[in-house]
Amino acid sequence: MKYINAVKEILHQITYILTYKQKRAFYGLFIITLIGSLLEMLGIYVILPFIQAVMSPETLLNSGFTGLMAEILHISDSEKMLILMGGFVVSVYILMNVFLIFVEYRQNKFKCDFKKELSVKMLQTYMKRPYTYFINTNSARILKGVESDVDGVYAIFDNGFRLIAELTTSVFIGIFLVYIDPIMAVGILFIAIVTMLIILFGFKGHLVRLGHQQRELSMQLGKKAGQAIWGYKEIKVMQRADNFIETYEKSAENARKINISFNFMSALPEKIISVVCISGMIVLVCIRLLMEGDMASFIPKLAVFAVAAFRIIPAISRISVRINSILFYRPYLAATYENVTEVREYEKQQDKYKIDNSVDENVVKITLLTGDKYSFKKELKVDNVWWKYDNAENAVLKNLSMTIHKGESVGFIGASGAGKTTLADVILGLMRPQEGQVFIDGIDVYTIPKQWSRIIGYVPQVVYLTDESIKNNVAFGIPDNEIDEAMIWNALEQAQLKTFVEQLPEKLETRVGERGVKFSGGQRQRVAIARALYCNPEILVLDEATSALDNETEKAVMESIDVLQGKKTLIIVAHRLSTIMNCDSVYEIKDGRACKREKKDILKSNG
Question: Under a CB-based contact definition with an 8 Å cutoff, are residues 602 and 577 in contact?
């Protein structure tokens, strides 16, 4: 019963992941696979009359179908008719294998198309998840979901298609053998199936356990390698490379042991079933001969059984191998299914929120649009916002409210952990509060995420730069053929980086290195500011954007930001009081609330 439930669960998870188009393609492949199996049975079937003809050629001219063909073709020589029949058998095998090659090609195309589409789909599902998911989840686990889990699901499909082919072929050939000689066929099939079931039930639990361990170790290997590579500079300085190599090697050793066990258990069933079936077949042949005693009449059947055994015994052996592989990769399918399910549920919640807090589309257009450009008219309002992190005892933001007017520059100050960055993330739309709302000109920003993304820009504390050109890093995520270089230069000028870039030999095509290692801290921060300004947002959020810089570099970067005073609405999360000196308003985030403070009082209290 457990085995049946496991099969049902696997089928449910697969059909849930597959799109309608993929399901249609799958059903089509199933049909041509059945046809291929029928052709393989036909290949076995044509052997019997050919062997009978070889043993008694004279019967060819007088028996049913061959006699009719001889009369139509005016053939009176039994040897010529035998050659013709041999040519027919060869033609059947050629056509059969041409069709089977076609089936193999279609199956392979479907699997590769599915793997690509699923990989893209998995990345899409992760990108649709809330920001809090990325806060709580290791990047190695996410990469595993996009890469290794997809490989595991692909392996299930690969083994699944081959299982269907082997199973249907075995069933059709088995039915034909029962028709030829019921006693011998049933005996051989009974021995093979019982042996296979014993192996499957014996290995099932161990294989599923190995699959879970392998998936976890695969993630650990990626995590350990990433830590060693991303922390190379510190590791080199502290001379701790051996420690990282050792921890990686431990995980690799455990993975090696699992792979050995899985590969051995995958190969073992085929050998056992082959030995048992061949031995059983020989015993049954001997018994059959003793029962009949007529060797001449039994030889054609024996020849057919020999050809069938050549195909069916390996097929039955591979059935167990395919099922074992599916069991091993089942945790990968379960993880993929869980990820897709969670994201679809999250999307439903998002859609429900938009419906519950919907606004008239005409109001959105009138309020936010000026021609084709989204526009911020009056004020940004944070209204009674509450936010509490998962598993945290207390809320970070409690009934917090504030109003920021267009063109105003506002600073957030407060102790570490007070909720400054959390408030900034709520305003950015990264985290929807459990209670309360954020409005722009009276419209809830969470109901218009695309419009909001065009109005607001963001400069983080830790800048993420890709190992590409300055141009690609400023126009982050925009295809090359859609990048406007005039806008790039304008953003660089506002970030006070234009002169520096103009002096570089390759100018905008200069590569910044992975994570911007070829640039200084101040230059990286200016690239981040230029990135935020590229699409000319009307609101700019700077989350401790200069905290990692020394005083002199911070002063230079702040000059770039101060130039934007009055031109942009600025929200500055401060780590030093020097970064809020030119702000129009300052809010202290304390005990989950925002208290407006006078700058002179802040400076006085800090000596």
Answer: yes
Token pair 């041999």: residue? 86
**Residue 201 corresponds to which tokens in the numbers above?**
């039930």
- CA–CA dist 217, 258 (Å, integer): 10
Question: HSE of 180 in the Cβ direction (CA atoms, 13 Å)?
Answer: 26
> What's the alpha-carbon Rg for the chain, to the nearest Å?
36
Residues 52, 50: Cα–Cα separation, whole Å:
5
Query: pLDDT at position 53, please?
Result: 66
All structural domains of the chain with their residue ranges: 20-352, 363-605
Distance from chain centroid for Cα 460: 28
Please tell me the CATH code under which domain 20-352 is placed: 1.20.1560.10
At 438, is the secondary structure helix, strand, or coil? strand
Average pLDDT over residues 413-429: 84
Q: d(Cα 531, Cα 459) in Å, to the nearest integer?
A: 8
Sign of CA dihedral 423, 426, 427, 428: positive
Backbone angles phi, psi at 413, to 5 degrees: -125, 170
Q: What is the mean pLDDT of residues 213-226?
A: 72
pLDDT for 280 beyond 50:
yes
Token pair listed for 269: 């069933």
What are the pLDDT digits (tens) for 362-402?
444 444 444 445 577 888 888 888 888 877 778 888 888 88
How far is Cα 26 from Cα 117, in angstroms, rounded to an integer?
A: 14
Question: Per DSSP, what are the bridge partners of residue 434?
Answer: none
pLDDT in tens, 99-152: 988 988 888 888 888 888 888 887 877 777 777 777 777 777 777 777 778 888
In the chain, DSSP finds a helix count (H) and a strand count (E) of 21, 12
Beta-bridge partners for 540: 457, 570
Closest CA to 582 of 601, 558, 606, 602: 558
Amino acid identity of 62? N
* Amino acid 423: pLDDT: 87
pLDDT in tens, 308-350: 777 777 777 778 778 778 877 888 888 888 888 877 777 776 6
C-alpha distances (whole Å) from 233 to each of 230, 238, 343, 462 are 8, 9, 37, 17
Task: Report CA-CA distances (Å) from 485 to 96, 491, 513.
Answer: 59, 10, 21
Instruction: Please state the CATH superfamily assignment of the domain spanning residues 363-605 in this structure.
Output: P-loop containing nucleotide triphosphate hydrolases (3.40.50.300)
- Share above pLDDT 70 across residues of the chain, in percent, rounded to a whole number: 78
Q: Check residues 359 and 158 and name the one with the higher pLDDT.
A: 158
Decide: 347 and 195 in contact? Cβ < 8 Å.
no
**What's the mean per-residue pLDDT of the chain?**
76
User: What average pLDDT does the segment 559-564 reach?
Assistant: 74
φ and ψ at residue 524, rounded to 5 degrees: -60, -40
Nearest in space to 374 (alpha carbons), one of 449, 295, 302 = 449
Q: What is the H or E stretch that residue 158 is in?
A: helix 148-180
CA triple 195-200-205, angle to 5 deg: 150
pTM, 2 dp: 0.70
Separation of alpha carbons 405 and 568, rounded Å: 11
